[in-house]
Amino acid sequence: MATLSAYPNTNTNTNTNTNTNFLSPTDQSNHDRESIPPMQNHPSAEPDSDANPNFHSPLLDPPDSVPPAVAPSSLLHLSFNQDHGCFAAGTDHGFRIYNCDPFREIFRRDFDRGGGIGVVEMLFRCNILALVGGGPDPQYPPNKVMIWDDHQSRCISELSFRSEVRSVRLRRDRIIVVLEQKIFVYNFVDLKLLHQIETILNPKGLCAVSQGAGSLVLVCPGLQKGQVRVEHYASKRTKFIMAHDSRIACFALSQDGQLLATASTKGTLVRIYNTIDGSLLQELKKSTLPWLFIALSSGTVRRGADRAEIYSLAFSSNAQWLAVSSDKGTVHVFSLKISAGSPGTTQSRSTSEPVVSSHSSLSFIKGVLPKYFSSEWSVAQFRLVEGSQYLVAFGHQKNTVVILGIDGSFYRCQFDPVNGGEMTQLEYHNFLKPEAAF
């Protein structure tokens, strides 16, 4: 059951539909100011079978923020905003907002007691955020989504659930709340429940939504191992795709919602699907082999299982590239062989035969590789600390990748789209250190 609450606006001089955002005027030259429709306050709501909205007295406003903390903060959550121009960090004291290019901290709020924020979801660059408490001393209950208006410095609405919230996704028109086995879709303006979806166990809160100006496409785990569910809300169609044999570890949508990248818990292959018809368009794998023993006398090829945990997948804005991070400490960039404007077809390169560059040390055995090796190899790589978790996105500058580490590391790198190879590091910061604040 979900309980919805819209907090009354006690400040008559404050309008919730503000254009206030997290950028100073000088930082907004290349970015549109974002806003959403005003959220309505309702005296009542119709009950739903699984979500029974009841409006009640608001919680006390959060305590006043205090100066940057004395004790160092521990990172609980990282997420990019919808255009990858900013990222949010949830800590055991509060939350922070950073700009990616140029890198700088543009906002922070540290609470004077408790303060753990386990989920921070931005809405582009506007003043509205979705917060969920987390850590050993959470600021809010972990089963509630708090809609925070930073123009008013308080929560203006909340959504309460019977179990912990695993993740939240925002669009200008929708709030998507992910629980361990259920997903709720709400209208942003009036918090009306529009849809609920049953899923397989989803402790990571896997969910992706399209962010283009067109209709909403939502992807989540299905009810079977290795299955993904695609909801096309404009056409009212549901598509199930058996993406992998093992459990889904990670997936990502292109901005328009037409392409889906998936990885399983095996972490050996990334697959690209057409979300409209569910067809497999391309397979990708890492550019380096764990080991390869070729017995020329018997004409056989053997391979070792180089499993990896995929942490993050990201399409470039034009869906020409895909970035992948894993626990192996390497970020890979792949070239997508999808014809522009026609995601249902691939370019001339066939995925039925091994794809090995003529410059590759494996080119001499092209044609004898088993089907496993027919997948595409990455164009560029960047080496990081093995075992740590990294989040990836493509930067606003051409051929750049932004990498965020759970250890507080920020990297901006550039790759060569023609020659590939190792990426060039352009920038590095540790955003958890006090001197990282500008």
From TrEMBL:
<dbReference type="InterPro" id="IPR001680">
    <property type="entry name" value="WD40_rpt"/>
</dbReference>
<dbReference type="Pfam" id="PF21032">
    <property type="entry name" value="PROPPIN"/>
</dbReference>
<dbReference type="InterPro" id="IPR015943">
    <property type="entry name" value="WD40/YVTN_repeat-like_dom_sf"/>
</dbReference>
<dbReference type="InterPro" id="IPR048720">
    <property type="entry name" value="PROPPIN"/>
</dbReference>
<keyword id="KW-0677">Repeat</keyword>
<comment type="similarity">
    <text>Belongs to the WD repeat PROPPIN family.</text>
</comment>
<dbReference type="InterPro" id="IPR036322">
    <property type="entry name" value="WD40_repeat_dom_sf"/>
</dbReference>
<protein>
    <recommendedName>
        <fullName>Autophagy-related protein 18a</fullName>
    </recommendedName>
</protein>
<dbReference type="GO" id="GO:0034045">
    <property type="term" value="C:phagophore assembly site membrane"/>
</dbReference>
<feature type="compositionally biased region" description="Low complexity">
    <location>
        <begin position="9"/>
        <end position="21"/>
    </location>
</feature>
<keyword id="KW-0853">WD repeat</keyword>
<feature type="region of interest" description="Disordered">
    <location>
        <begin position="1"/>
        <end position="68"/>
    </location>
</feature>
